[in-house]
Amino acid sequence: MPEPMTQSGPQPAVSIVVPVRNEAENVAPLIAEIAAALDGRWAYEIVYVDDGSTDATPQRLAALRAERPNLRQIRHRSSCGQSAAVRTGVRAARGAIVATLDGDGQNNPAFIPDLIFALEQGGARVGLAAGQRVGRKDTGFKRLQSRVANKVRNGILRDGTRDSGCGLKAFRREVFLSLPYFDGLHRFLPALVRREGFDIVYVDVADRPRLSGRSNYGFFDRLWVGLMDLAGVWWLIRRKKATPVATEVN
Ligand SMILES: Nc1nc2c(ncn2[C@@H]2O[C@H](COP(=O)(O)OP(=O)(O)O)[C@@H](O)[C@H]2O)c(=O)[nH]1
Ligand SMILES: [Mg+2]
């Protein structure tokens, strides 16, 4: 059983969840950018989920916590993957709205307010505001992989999404936690959120190169698990009936 996570202090409206594995050099600059984007706008907390890093990521986070009371660090004892880290962060989040972003600096926190506004303006029907990268800063080969993967996914799932792998997203905590969980889930949020009967709104976000360190994924990781996950999500959608509208009769 996971230990219960408790936190005192006023409840924030928004939680920023950042999954990281071995991102020591990227922690401080990204947190400064998150604070610059959100300070004075919402009561918020930053929840870093360190997924069993073997570098100085936990120490850097611990040092920053001394000066930032709204920064939390949650640590997996051993690495369980990015989806698991996002889920741990969302479960621990105290805000009703959660925004996620990658911890390597590729996602610019300056877009978080746009995502939150888009979600809020959409009202209760909208379950997810998804970032769509423009001007990708990855290598040509990775851009090609991503383009093919997005075409195949959209062709099969028809989730109307150009780019579902962007780490910048905002959603209602409750909606995310109602989704079926699997490793790889974070790449299929638009299709899974639509499956629950919610709409998606999109926000264009400028992509950046990784600040420092290296990618955690290789070509074969993405190809093999990507195909398996696609088959799984296709099945989940096929096996969905109408979303129940339930009312208690008194
Ligand atoms: N918690 C956790 N985070 C991960 C893992 N792999 C990648 N990440 C984080 O997820 C984000 C995106 O990963 P990255 O390696 O940059 O993937 P890429 O941008 O697709 O090449 C970064 O913040 C990583 O630190 C993992 O196994 N566990
Ligand atoms: Mg990256």
TrEMBL record:
Pfam family, one: Glycos_transf_2
Domain Glycosyltransferase 2-like: 15-176
The keyword Electron transport is annotated on this UniProt entry: no
UniProt superkingdom: Bacteria
Record's keyword annotation contains Transmembrane: yes
Name of the protein described by the UniProt record: Glycosyltransferase involved in cell wall biosynthesis
Keywords, comma-separated and alphabetical: Cell membrane, Glycosyltransferase, Lipopolysaccharide biosynthesis, Membrane, Transferase, Transmembrane, Transmembrane helix
One annotated GO biological process: lipopolysaccharide biosynthetic process
SUPFAM superfamilies from the UniProt entry: Nucleotide-diphospho-sugar transferases
GO cellular component: plasma membrane
Any one GO molecular-function label of the UniProt entry: undecaprenyl-phosphate 4-deoxy-4-formamido-L-arabinose transferase activity
